[in-house]
Amino acid sequence: MRRKSLSGAACPIARTLDVIGDWWSLLIVRDALRGMRRFSEFEKSLGVSKNILTQRLRSLVKQGILELSPASDGSAYREYRLTTKGRGLFKVLVAMGQWGQENVASPAGGRVTMVDLEHHKPVRKLEVRAADGRLLGPGETMIVRID
Amino acid sequence: MRRKSLSGAACPIARTLDVIGDWWSLLIVRDALRGMRRFSEFEKSLGVSKNILTQRLRSLVKQGILELSPASDGSAYREYRLTTKGRGLFKVLVAMGQWGQENVASPAGGRVTMVDLEHHKPVRKLEVRAADGRLLGPGETMIVRID
DNA sequence: CCAACTGGTTCAATCATGGAACCATGGGAG
DNA sequence: CTCCCATGGTTCCATGATTGAACCAGTTGG
Fold first, then answer.
1. Which CATH number do you get for residue A49?
2. Residue A67, in any domain of the structure
3. Single pTM value for the model
4. Domain assignment present for A133
């Protein structure tokens, strides 16, 4: 049977996974946030097969996360740019990056972290806060239906 | 060929995806954060095949995100509980939930949102901030190697 | 003691993924 | 203008992953 579609789920997490829950999409968005726009850039950065990359880029365009526009360098080629919706995934990637940094050992190669462009200092850890500003842990929230 | 392993990547986002980047793992963690602990609860909630669920639960245990402990109801069965590492994924799920709520249309069914347990008011939107507290957008950060 | 429930395992079929080969355009050098 | 390489794909096949169904051993409730 085909992979289950979660697009009809009431849960926004499930709907998000339905859109970017596969192996490559978030990595493409990550690279796009770093400024990549061209097919060949993604291909080289990710080491993914062209057919898969084609498929994923098309899906991201269809979902409104990327859009095709004429190349900025004046050539006849086109490039993939993040939409506002796509840039919204920034926070998701920051969350994943922070979790990975703390919880998944990085091998010999070298570690990497995110700093702000201006002062080159590490970004603060994300915090979940209540409407009144209180810090919230995993057990201090609940999910409710909106009617 | 086997799905590419990203466990050796310097990028913490890639390493995170290597651990929880598949279709079901994050949904299992989501349910675990809502208090689910038993095999049959996950099975019913997710509608996933038992063999896949078995596989995923085992993987999450091996990764240290879940751990097996004796059932709290005194029966001879065991249950899956989140570890501290697993609870750390809370922020990732909040980020995905907020993005999905704003960017992926929810169908007829009904919408859902996260509120704090105490006052039942919606949780604040996550913010990426610099060390000095400035709000940072996607273009105002960069990735650097730590030596 | 028997039936149903829990938590799996095994199986065949189908779907997705990866690598390689191929190809139509664009662009740059001469 | 022409040749040749780079870009951005498409197609094909082999392999891996996912699925639902069937089956099964140990637990529990009645």
1. 1.10.10.10
2. yes
3. 0.94
4. no
> Mean pLDDT in chain A?
92
How far in angstroms lies nucleotide D21's C1' from the CA of residue B51?
12
Contacts of B17 in chain A (CB under 8 A): 23, 26-27, 96
Amino acid in position B29: V
Q: Is B105 helix (H, G, I), strand (E, B) or coil?
A: coil
Domain count along chain B: 1
Q: Are A123 and B141 spatial neighbours (Cβ–Cβ below 8 Å)? A: yes
- Please give the C-alpha separations between residue A103 and each of A145, B16, B87, in angstroms, as whole numbers: 32, 8, 11
* pLDDT tens sequence across B92-104: 999 999 999 999 9
Residue with tokens 């702000």: A116
How far apart are the C-alpha atoms of A53 and A41, rounded to whole Å?
Answer: 11
Those nucleotides of strand D lying less than 7 Å from any protein Cβ are 6-12, 15-22, 26-29
Chain B residue with CA closest to A91: the answer is: B95
Contact flag A146-B111 (C-beta cutoff 8 Å): yes
Contact B116, B62 (CB under 8 A): no
Domain that holds residue B53: 12-88
pLDDT of residue A110: 73
pLDDT reported for residue B1: 44
Report if residue B2 sits inside a domain: no
Proximity of residue A75 CB to strand C below 7 A: yes
**Residue A46 lies inside a defined structural domain of this protein:** yes
pLDDT of residue A1: 40
pLDDT by residue (tens digit) across A64-118? 999 999 998 878 899 999 999 999 999 999 999 999 999 998 876 678 999 999 9
